[in-house]
Amino acid sequence: MNKIKILLALSLLFGLASPAVFADTLNSDKDIIGSWFLEYTKKSPEDSEKKPMGMTWVLNNNQLIQKDIPQVRGNPYDAPAVDYIVEGGMLKVSILGRAGKFDSYSLVEKTDTTMVLKDNKYGSYMYFTKK
């Protein structure tokens, strides 16, 4: 019985210390307005493998424009603007050509110059710096 109590106490302790519990929440779009350089993505915060991205997200007037999207061949390109909303503490970005469908992102961490979003569909983490 004592072992069960100890295991339960440890699981609660480690569960409460996980990064998801301390994640920030978005209150309004004013928290994220501006130009953000997407440096890299990772499968998890502990993962050492980083996938370089090198594009810019411009969030303004409830529209997201992805700029300087790298290509294997040729010059970088810009994507058409899509609408976004901040709802329920998450960033919801409209999917181009799919009315009423959204990609949703949770705010993991934000400072004045950095931001980490979690893609709720694929579970990857996106690391931004303010431009």
Describe the structure.
Helices cover 11% and strands 43% of the residues. It is mainly beta and 131 residues long. The chain has an eight-stranded antiparallel barrel with strand order 1-2-3-4-5-6-7-8. It is globular and about 35 Å long. Mean pLDDT is 85; it is low at 12-22.
Q: How many strands, which pairing sense, and closed or not: the largest β-sheet?
A: 8 strands, antiparallel, barrel
Q: Assign a percent range to the helix content.
A: 10-25%
Shape, per Cα inertia axes: globular
Q: Uncertain runs with pLDDT below 50, 5 residues or more? A: 12-22
Rg, nearest Å: 18 Å
- The ordered string of helix (H) and strand (E) elements is HEEEEEEEE
Compute the number of structural domains. 1
CATH architecture: Beta Barrel
Distance between the ends: 56 Å
Average of per-residue pLDDT values = 85
List the main descriptive attributes of the protein structure presented here:
11% helix, 1 helix, globular, Lipocalin, mainly beta, 8 strands, 131 residues, eight-stranded antiparallel barrel
Describe the structure in brief.
The chain has 131 residues and is mainly beta.
Question: What is the secondary structure topology, with strand pairs?
Answer:
Blueprint: H1 2-16, E1 34-42, E2 51-60, E3 63-67, E4 82-87, E5 90-94, E6 102-110, E7 114-119, E8 125-130
Antiparallel strand pairs: 1-2, 1-8, 2-3, 3-4, 4-5, 5-6, 6-7, 7-8
